[in-house]
Amino acid sequence: PYMQNDDEYTDRQKLHIILKTPLPRDEPRFKTVIGLFPNAEPYEREIHEFFGIDFEGHPRLTPLLLERDYEVPPFRKDFDTRKYVAELLDSVPPIETKKK
Predict the structure, then answer these.
(1) Do 61 and 45 touch, CB atoms closer than 8 A?
(2) Which residues fall within 8 angstroms of residue 18, CB to CB, at 6 or more apart?
(3) Cα diameter, the chain
(4) Which residues of the chain fall below pLDDT 70?
(5) Which whole-number Å values give the CA distances from 13 to 5, 9, 10, 56, 82, in the listed order?
């Protein structure tokens, strides 16, 4: 992993860290950093939900923002937005077919 202390955004009381690491697409996993940074808990849940990364050792990787499950997490590059919209909206009848 690549860790960088971003001095541009650091003041005397706070430490900002940017963490970058390559992960395999088929099973993206990374160890949780909650033991070091307890406030990382909701961020790891959000990353898990939108990108599908499993954080090993995270106490509760439960949905944070999304209401439904997705085959592919919606912020991944291989998420097919057109297919998702077609499947979601094809079941909704057009306004013109509504009975008067």
Answers:
(1) yes
(2) 3, 4, 6
(3) 66
(4) 1-14, 98-100
(5) 14, 11, 8, 29, 45
Per the structure block, which two tokens stand in for 35?
């033991």
CA 35 vs CA 13, 17, 62: distances in Å: 19, 15, 18
- DSSP secondary-structure letter at 94? P
DSSP string, 13-41: S---EEEE----SSS-EEE--TTT-GGGH
Tokens of 21: 């690491």
pLDDT at position 29, please? 95
Three-state DSSP class for 89?
helix
Per-domain boundaries in the chain: 2-97
Helix (H, G, I), strand (E, B) or coil at 5: strand
